[in-house]
Amino acid sequence: MAFSILSRKQDIERLKNEKLDLLTIGGGITGAGVAIQASSMGMNNALIEMQDFAEGTSSRSTKLVHGGIRYLKNFDVEVVSDTVKERAVVQGVAPHIPRPDPMLLPIYDEPGATFDMFSVKVAMNLYDQLAGVTDPKFTNYTISKEEVLQREPQLKPEGLLGGGVYLDFRNNDARLVIENIKKAHENGGLMVSHIQALHILHDENGRVNGVHVKDLLNDEEFDIHANLVINTTGPWSDFIREMDDKQKVVPQMRPTKGVHLVVDSKRLSVPQPTYFDSGKQDGRMIFVIPREDKTYFGTTDTDYKGDFKHPRVEQEDIDYLFDIINTRYPEAHITVDDIEASWAGLRPLISSNGSSDYNGGNSGKITSKSFDEVIDIVDKFEKKEASHEDVEDVLNNLESTLSEGKLNPSAVSRGSSLEVSDDGLITLAGGKITDYRKMAAGAIALIAQLLKKDFGENFNEIDSKHLEVSGGDIDPNNVDATISFFAKQGIESGLSKEEAERIANLFGSNASRVFSQIGKIDAAPGLSLAETISLHYSLDEEMTLTPVDYLLRRTNHLLFQHDTINDIKDGVVNEMARYFNWSDAEKDAQMKKLNDTIDEASLKYLK
């Protein structure tokens, strides 16, 4: 189904003329999760986003579907259990996106260390039990100091005790959003980007019944009416709540900024994702991740009060990360001149909750009695004196020293909040990318209940744990073979193996639709045939409206293929200008926007 500038015009006409069951404000991962479930249930629903889909927080994560092993430092089993179980659900509904990628956790003998060699083994065993990891390829193991240094010779040897290796998953955050959005649109939802909410509307009884908006592509303002409105705008949640002049709003968000920096793998070589303490006794841990012949590292976690629409990397951010990286990898000598790309994003933390995605606070320890029981059962399991069921029984009956171990009554996942204001505005905030499906399911259950109670509408429940996203028609237990099958279609049509595999990995089961264009269109000037068909598919079916949309959020080219960005940017802009019939002035403006984005990502302003 077309999902393009043409369908956008049609959808806007419907927004002006129909009363919806549900309007979602915010096109990041949370809103996308609500939209796909609402559409699958047959709700007449729409989603509006003031930027490109995922342009805010949801394209600026650490790009992992992370299991949260660090929470096991405090034996916060509940949060890890929830996270790894939900991660498995995400991998099932979007099997072409999260991919298993075992994580190395070097252990140092230093003050404030999260783990020692004993506790990391206990934590990893618990982690595997909670995640149901049984495949010998992915079960955890410990390695000696010598083995760690064989894998990563650049690591600092002083104080290194050894390491642990456990299962984690890499992610393509922006593509997870767009695949949910595409499926929601395919199922009848109206998904429209570059529409800004300006004011919350009310009926004669003072109940929320829509939003006054502006189309940022032509500055036209109009009203959208809906029985229910849900605010899923992440860090912007308080801004939307403040548009409701019938309510006195107490701010609930406390966003923090996270920064990631990309260098060539020749400057910092790691064979697998690596995760270690900052070494600064500040409670933070740092990721160093290989990706497409590049290495990226982060993250910071600092309170943020700047421009929410445009957070960027500042000098203090890189100073902090360089100090840690050059201490852990003393021969690397990374400087700002090595940075090829970067990104900064805001985490939508709720001020009443202390835990962020990766560098969170303590949400409670288990009692000493339960701690001893955990150690004992793990030891017995290792000696084959206890079964999986025995371990699960102990884990399911842990005693917490803090009541914070239980979810807040208004939460649908750890660190989230689902609330309805007195006049009916629903706000779903907080959480993290791994929990998006679960958060959306909680919101949809409430929405269905309200639509039935207040509007007499009935919708059949769905099992969103098995609701595939667009491109997800792949056996999650046989992903590599299925991706190879799709890639074979491209190879047989004349693409190289590398080109075909890249398309198959990027678009999943939709790769067939990409390859079907071969023979119908020719390679655009300055672009390969593979790049041309990828671009055209994205223009026709992924609501790609600008070169930055395509090169940053649809393909990650701008982040992880810095070496070739200058080779293709002219071809991309020229082909999009032809597709959209841009004037010379518009084409020049789009090229400037792309060059400015490349310069900012490469930190030209700090060099």
From TrEMBL:
The keyword Lyase does not apply. Residues 23-353 form the FAD dependent oxidoreductase domain. Pfam families: DAO, DAO_C. Its EC number is 1.1.3.21. It catalyses: sn-glycerol 3-phosphate + O2 = dihydroxyacetone phosphate + H2O2. GO terms for molecular function: glycerol-3-phosphate dehydrogenase (quinone) activity; glycerol-3-phosphate oxidase activity. The keyword Oxidoreductase applies. It comes from the Bacteria. Gene3D superfamilies: Alpha-glycerophosphate oxidase, cap domain, D-Amino Acid Oxidase, subunit A, domain 2, FAD/NAD(P)-binding domain. Residues 465-587 form the Alpha-glycerophosphate oxidase C-terminal domain. GO terms for biological process: glycerol metabolic process; glycerol-3-phosphate catabolic process. InterPro entries: DAO_C, DAO_C_sf, FAD-dep_OxRdtase, FAD/NAD-bd_sf, G3P_DH_FAD-dep. It is an enzyme of class 1 (oxidoreductase). Its cofactor is FAD. Keywords: FAD, Flavoprotein, Glycerol metabolism, Oxidoreductase. NCBIfam families: glycerol3P_ox_1. Belongs to the FAD-dependent glycerol-3-phosphate dehydrogenase family. This is Alpha-glycerophosphate oxidase. It comes from Pediococcus argentinicus.
